[in-house]
Amino acid sequence: MRRLLIIIALIIALLAALIVAPQVVGDKGYVLISMGTFIIEMTVVSLAISLVIAVLLAWVLLKIVGVIKGWLTGSRRWFGHLSRKKRQRSFYRGVQSYAQGELAQARKYFEQSLEGDFDGANLLLAAQVAYDLGDQSRASELLDHASDYERCAVPARVQQARMLLSADKPEAALAALDKLDEKQATEKPVIQLKADCLARSGQWQTIQTQLPQWRKILKKDAVPLAQRAAKGKFSELASKQGANALKQYWAELPRKKRHDEAFRAAYVEQLIEQGMHQDAEECLVEWQSLGPEPTLMPFFKALRMPNPAASIKLLESWIKKDETNRQYYSLLGHVAFNANDLNLAERALLKAVKLKETPEDLMLLARISERQQDHAKALTFYKQSMAHS
């Protein structure tokens, strides 16, 4: 519209100049065109007006051609619109079929929608259907195609890596994730899956090296990952070189790592798995002398010692400070039960279930009653535990 207004303004200005100028000069002038016997003679103003009319006619003609072309183009778009509608219909029917569990039908519909403009979502679903039908190569091909869409790159590679992990191919899954660019690789789902791949392939040192960078993104989820990595490293060391080598390795770790809650939890867990319950108890008591640590507290239940005096003393001190904390009573009950101190175990667990009943504590009370030959009470506790499960 703006362009048209400019053209009209220029034409008006040109006509005004042609009409006014000769009157100002006083000489209209003339133009003679001779082509053999054909002679044209007109004034300069007449020639200018004729040229303007010719330009206008040419412009109108071009407009008419443009309109006709638009009609033709519009017709093609109309047919294309029908095609897009068909692909959209196939996509939605594919989603419905997949939701109903009709995988073969869903695959047929999704294949018909592959050329549609769905920003890669149709490719993700088609790949999942192909994978569910056992066609892993086709699923991988579709996910490679889906990764070409910017918004679909991360979901496609994550989905591909999960499929490879389920086929027990952690290295191939890592290779799929490594195809993401630097920015995409920092997304939380990618890091979590990459850590899982590294763990499955036993690359514990790589996880520990990457953890400082990953902690900023994973936040609280970094703790179990660090614990898993440390446990893997400790387990590998203990299985190859023995428990003493594990203790030596721990002593040589940097102070920062020895004070990390995840590393401590993994170390205690490995000590217990190696049967070194006395060493594990010493660590648990020493590291929680200033107060309970959520990541370390559960390991009290795994201690198997004839005289866990240090653990009992520590747990009783916690109870004195907070007599309404059922977890402290529960821990004390498990420690006492594993030491075969049934009286202490029963008293502690009864206080725990009085504050809040849990299936675990009720089952342990039932076992205590069985050892005490009180089968009626044991049956009562078993029934209560079943009611909470």
Describe this entry's structure for a reader.
- The protein has 389 residues and is mainly α.
- Helix content is 74%, strand content 3%.
- It has 19 helices and 2 strands.
- It has a two-stranded antiparallel sheet.
- The longest helix is centred in the N-terminal third of the chain and has 56 residues, at 44-99.
Which terms would index this structure?
389 residues, mainly alpha, two-stranded antiparallel ribbon, 19 helices, 2 strands, elongated
Residue fraction in strands: under 5%
Q: What is the tally of beta strands?
A: 2
Q: H/E element string?
A: HEEHHHHHHHHHHHHHHHHHH
| Structure class | mainly alpha
What's the Cα radius of gyration? 41 Å
Q: Poorly predicted ranges (pLDDT <50, ≥5 residues)? A: 74-79
Largest sheet: 2 strands, antiparallel
Distance between the termini: 74 Å
- Binned, the helix content reads over 70%
Task: Please tell me what the overall shape is.
Answer: elongated
Number of helices: 19
Provide the spatial order of strands within the biggest beta sheet: 1-2
Mean pLDDT: 84
